[in-house]
Every structure is written in C-alpha cells, then in structure tokens.
Amino acid sequence: MVTIDANGDLVPFGTAGASDFKLGLLASLSYGNTIAYLKPFNTIIDDFAKPENLTGSKGDFYYASTVTPGDITTNSAQGSDKLYFQFKDAVPTVITATAVNSATAGGDTLLVNGVASVSGARTIGEIVSDINAGTATHFVTATQPLGETVLKSYDSGLNPANGDIVLVTSVDSGANNVFPEITISDGNNTASVVFNTSDSTFPGTGGTYLTVSATQMAADINAACQAASVDITASTEANTAGNNNSTYPKLVLTLGSGSGITITEVSVDAAGQTFGNNGANGGGVAIPLTANATTDRTLVLTRADGGDILLTGNGTFVNSNGIVSSSAGTPALLVMVEDEEGAASFDDSDLQASIDSLEISAATETGVATKVDRNKNPLATTSDEDSTGITITYTPYSDSAVTVKVNGLQCNIGDGAKDEAVYFSADGGTTAKTIANIAAGDTLYWMGSLAGYELETDDDIDIDYQASSNDV
Questions:
Q1: Are 306 and 329 in contact (CB under 8 A)?
Q2: Quick one: how far is CA 83 from the chain centroid?
Q3: What is the largest CA-CA distance in the chain?
Q4: What is the side-by-side strand order in the sheet with 210-212?
Q5: CA distances in angstroms from 348 to 88, 360, 401, listed in the order given
Q6: For labeling, which of 179, 317, 429, 453 is most exposed (least CB within 10 Å)?
Q7: Is the Cβ–Cβ distance between 76 and 66 less than 8 Å?
C-alpha cells in the first residue's frame, strides 16, 4: 500500500512523515523504477476542468469551500468535506518563440485563451506587459529572458589549423611538454587556464603527439572559472567538420552574466598553435576571442497550472516564429476522497523513494510490465527461420506492444509475416504469428538475412511486454 511523502515521492503507506491518505496498491515498478503501476482505491482525475483552481501542491487536500459555495479550497479552516487529494504537481505548459525580439505589426492581434491581449504594433517588452495584464483571466504569464551569449568552434567561418579541434602538449611522446595557456574574462573577473592535462593521442602518430580535446579543455576552463568567479561555462558539441570527430568535438563557451566573453592568448601549444585563430599559425580551437553580451530577448509564455495555451488572432504574429498554441503541459493529478476501507496493508522495503511518473489503472485486472523474459541467451543461428530457443513466458496483456532487443538494440517483429528480423511462431517456425496473437509458450525465430547478422550463444536478448496482473 502506497502514499506520498512531503517531497511528493511515492513511499510505502505508514512511512514516517508521509501522508496518511492511501493512494492504492503498488502492482509493479518498471523502466528502472521510474514508472509505478498502481491499483488505486478511488477515482483518479487527470483532466480537471479548471486546472487554474488547483492552487495546492502534492500532498494537499482540497475541501468544499464554506466561503464560496461550489468552489474548492486547500484551507481546511474555510472548508468542509475533503473532496480531492493532490498526489502530483502540474507540469507547466511553455511556449518559447523561435526568433528573438518578437514584435507585432500594426494589423496584428493576439488572443490568449480567448482573451484579447495584444493589438497593433508592440515591442517585445510591451507584449509582455500586455499579456501579463490579463493573467488573472487567461492564466498565462509572459517573460522575456535574455538570449544566450555563446562562442563556438567554427564560429565566424574559422577553421582549425590541422583539421581538428585540438591542442598539442607534446610532439615526442611526453619527453618534452609545452602547455598552452589563455586567460578568459566575463567582463567582471578573469581566470587563467593552463591546458596541462592530455586526454588523447593524435590518430596515426603512434602516440607521439599528446593532445588535449575539447572535453578536457572544457573541464580545465570550468575549474579555472569556478575558482576565479568567472561566470562562463564550457561544454562540448558534436563535431561534423573535423577529421577525427569522435575524438575531437567542438568547444562551446556560454556566458552567464557579465559584459561579454574575452579570451586572451598567453602561450601557444607544442605544435605552435594558438588557442583561437588570431595568428599566422592558425588556431587549435578555431574559436573567436571575443563576444559582447547579447541584448536579444526571447518571448516565453508559461501556464504554470499545466492547462492549454490557445493563441489566436489576426495578422502575421500568431502561428509564426514558434508563437503557436500548446497543450504540452500536464495539470496536477488528483484522486477523489472516497471510501478507503477494506484495503490490506503491506510493507515493501525495496520501493524506490523517488518515482517521477505514474501510470494508473483502476481495473481489477491490469497490464503489468514483466522482466521475466530479459537477459536470455539464444541458440546460435546460421540461416533464416532458425529458432532462437527462447519462448515468451506470458501472453501479452490485451494485445499490448511487444519489443525484442538484441544486445540492447530493438529489432522489428514480423506481424504475421517473416519480413522482419524476428517473428514468433507456435508451429516450429512454419507460420509467423501476428503480434496481437502472440501467446505464452510461443517461440522466437530469427531471420538473419533481414537482420544482417546471425545470432551467437553469448548474445543477449530481451523481450519486453506487459502481462496480465492476474498472471504474474
């Protein structure tokens, strides 16, 4: 039997400090204990008609208001009967413009959830003000955060001196070392960064050239910036323009606060490369040395209660540059406070203390994810229609989906045909069963010509599906 604690985490009923409201019985955990399947005692409500009225937090009760008949309240002093229990907070609905400095033109209008909000030529700041003036009616809040100030390898058409984003610390296997150095500033504080740790050797040099990739550069820059209170964060981004992309990604520098990013070269590397591309020898990182803090702002609309944001209007503003309606949020989840009697209690000491999402079924019989057919080793196969020797233990619940993975990679399943990498059969492989008719005891067969390879006995096969809660 489970409930939630003060953090909103799912815990066994009776846990110290947890709610005294019983959510229901835990049927199973799956997907690394991130999904819990419950048999709730009472009705679950995931589509509350007015999510804006759900002003509480997970763990709160809602009462029938004695102040405003027909309303609900989380204040027990102003309520009578308990009506609902909130067990999961809302996921806000957020719309982010895809262009900076959004503005409306003279003929543009904007209605937010049916409420006239913006009309005529307005700047982004005026749009934010106009929308927020009606928040109490349409439940949407507008903001205009500054855009990111970012420097990346290859910006401004720069290219690395030797074809890869890399610095060199030694050209003789470490017998002699030259450590390149820079300073980096956010306009307020400055950090010195010495790249004295090699994390790779340049391909094709037999280990002669010791190198520093952007991965190690980012670690060195972040350590130096943190120590010197420089508000710049280094990271990496996949490279597609280099010669050895898997070893040498791009370097990315992002400004937090300050007037900009300024890099100053102090010393070159063992190959004579500068850090940026400002000298005759070219640059190892191919990154510009300066960037002023951006003044661009991005329009963001947020409905904190997880309800819909419906955007309509005339002109060219709506349905362009990301200004489109959204139902991507999720309102708070409630359970009606009804009869909680007649439920048996049990203790599950292995229940994880943090569960991020809940999938709930109120039926007596429900689908339960099963791991019984995971980590199976097949028979070796040599030709199409060879048996893997693996059978499915349970009949999938209510024709639910079945997935087959080989060494972690999902394979397509033949649906009544032998036209995919695998299929199930109950007659020695002669007839491929439809996915909807897969049943307990059916055997998995292999089509090597379609998969592109044959199975070996040390391969790992997982069959993932839901079984009936009455079977497992």
A1: yes
A2: 34
A3: 84
A4: 167-170, 210-212, 200-201
A5: 21, 19, 29
A6: 453
A7: no
Q: Which domain holds residue 385?
A: 368-468
Residue reference for tokens 């400090």:
17
Residue 447 near residue 384 (C-beta atoms within 8 A): yes
pLDDT tens for 447-457 read 999 988 999 99
On whether residue 417 sits in a domain, the answer given is yes
Q: Check if the beta carbon of residue 144 is closer than 8 Å to that of residue 299.
A: yes
In angstroms, rounded to a whole number, what is the distance separating the alpha carbons of residues 417 and 409?
21
The DSSP bridge partners found for residue 86 are: 334
Q: Are residues 360 and 382 in the same domain?
A: no
What whole-number distance in Å separates Cα of residue 350 and Cα of residue 179?
Answer: 51
Strand partners, 297: 146
Segment 324-339 shows an average pLDDT of 86
Give me the chain's average pLDDT, please: 88
CA pair distance 403, 418, nearest whole angstrom:
16
pLDDT confidence tier of residue 361, bands split at 50, 70 and 90? very low
Q: Give SS3 for 401.
A: coil
Residues 268, 305: one domain?
no
Residue 155 included in any domain? no
The two tokens of residue 220 are 């060195």
Which one, of 338, 332, 353, 363, lies nearest residue 22 by Cα? 338
Whether 124 and 174 map to the same domain: the answer is no
Quick one: tokens of 74? 């989380």
**Does 380 lie in the same domain as 460?**
yes
Sheet holding 79-88: strands in order across? 44-45, 333-336, 79-88, 61-65, 72-73
- Lookup result for tokens 């503005």: 103
Q: Are residues 83 and 103 in the same domain?
A: no
Q: Judge if 373 and 346 occupy the same domain.
A: no
Which pLDDT does position 161 carry in this prediction?
86
**Rg, Å, the chain Cα set:** 30
**pLDDT score of 472:** 61
Number of structural domains found in the chain: 4
The dihedral over CA atoms of 202, 204, 207, 212, expressed in degrees to the nearest 10, equals 0
- CA angle 427-430-432, nearest 5°? 85
Give the rounded distance of the alpha carbon of 49 from its chain centre.
28
